[in-house]
Amino acid sequence: SNIVAIVGRPNVGKSTLFNRLIKRREAIVDAVSGVTRDRHYGKSEWNGREFSVIDTGGYVVGSDDVFEVEIDKQVELAIDEADVIIFVVDVETGVTGMDEDVAELLRRVNKPVLLAVNKVDNNKRAENAVEFYSLGLGDYFTIASINGSGTGDLLDAVVEALPEYIEEEESDLPRFAVVGRPNAGKSSFINALIGEERYIVTDIAGTTRDAIDTKYNQFGFEFNLVDTAGIRRKSKVKEDLEFYSVMRSVRAIEHCDVVILVHDATRGFDGQVQNIFWLAERNRKGIVILVNKWDLVEKDTNTVRDYEKQIRKEIEPFTDVPIVFISALNKQRIFKAIETAVEVYNNRSKKIKTSKLNEVLLPIIENNPPPALKGKYVKIKYIMQLPTPQPQFAFFCNLPQYVREPYKRFLENKLREEFNFHGVPISVYMRKK
Ligand code: GDP
């Protein structure tokens, strides 16, 4: 989908606006899984148009008392990656030098820039907003992101400014995105995979400017690689900035079926790599973790087991994910990596017959019914897989609101045990019968 970036100096209200724009549902999903990672990226929808929103401020280290150079990075990020830029300023403080610097960068940009004057919650302030004309960005929107006033008009303009939606050329082939933090070995992996000859059949440009699907035929598997990092790499310096790699990942992840997450075995499975992992999970994509540079790790009999255990602990509660130990450099287990990605793809597109689902799960539920809540007994009557691209299951029952998270997790685990959804996020819904 398209990307809308929010820029501006600290404390103007970027993250309040961000929280207002992203979907409520998403916030709830996060609360439920207990995951509150990566609060700077989310999906939004307005007038039926979906788009992603990035709070660029969130990716700049120390952005609370920011230096100009950090702001420049933010703006650069937005200029490079976003389709529409929202520049937030603060009517309380008026035009600052930093605002002028940002405006100067933005005036040179050949992309829609929407100026949002924030904290306008009375008429006096609305009058004061006039001074922002001096930024040379034309008309502005007055908003109060704290209560949402004015954000509707702003969103109308955002949607208006988005590039025309192009229906993506659908391909039946699995789409894999190779992502990971800088220097994890993504390019090395891709080189090990496709070698020198780069057997490219077609190039299909997707809906976005620079996410490229390229069709490959390797090891007897046919698939598309969604590669934003490798093919169109800018400067290595930029690539090393966290937010650049996260932005790249966002685009690639949104365009794929299965995320191949390349992780550097010599580093901890933390921060940035976790962000990417949860990004994939939140987008309901299949995931394979490749632990790369395994040749550099000193091993004894328990090393693999311990290492695996450590990673699974970091990705709780979504631990049902394949982990493959590879060396891109020595071309070790590259075939296994792709084979696993294909398996995950198949798991994700799996459709279980309603009769089979009920035959297997109803007896299990009979033996382990949802615990009574406030004296109410929940009776699950039947189960259905929804016709969505990724696995979602509806459990029809009398009192859906009385089923709590732990029981839903129990159901999810049973689905995993019985039907194999290795590497695939699945959704369990309780529905009123
Ligand atoms: P990218 O930024 O994720 O594309 O990472 P690169 O593919 O550019 O790799 C970063 C560095 O790690 C390079 O110096 C590679 O030679 C090295 N590297 C990549 N994979 C391996 C591996 O499996 N083993 C070892 N020892 N080094 C590797």
From TrEMBL:
GO-annotated molecular function: GTP binding; ribosome binding
Ligand binding (GTP 1): 8-15, 55-59, 118-121
CDD domains assigned: EngA1, EngA2
Membrane spanning residue stretches: none
GO biological process: ribosome biogenesis
Residues annotated as domain EngA-type G: 2-166, 174-349
UniProt entry tagged with the keyword Phosphoprotein: no
Keyword Repeat: yes
Residues reported to bind GTP 2: 180-187, 227-231, 292-295
Keywords (A to Z) from UniProt: GTP-binding, Nucleotide-binding, Repeat, Ribosome biogenesis
Source species, domain of life: Bacteria
Pfam families: KH_dom-like (PF14714), MMR_HSR1 (PF01926)
Subunit record text: Associates with the 50S ribosomal subunit.
Family classification: Belongs to the TRAFAC class TrmE-Era-EngA-EngB-Septin-like GTPase superfamily. EngA (Der) GTPase family.
Function: GTPase that plays an essential role in the late steps of ribosome biogenesis.
Protein name stated in the entry: GTPase Der
Species whose genome carries this gene: Gelidibacter maritimus
Gene designation per UniProt: der
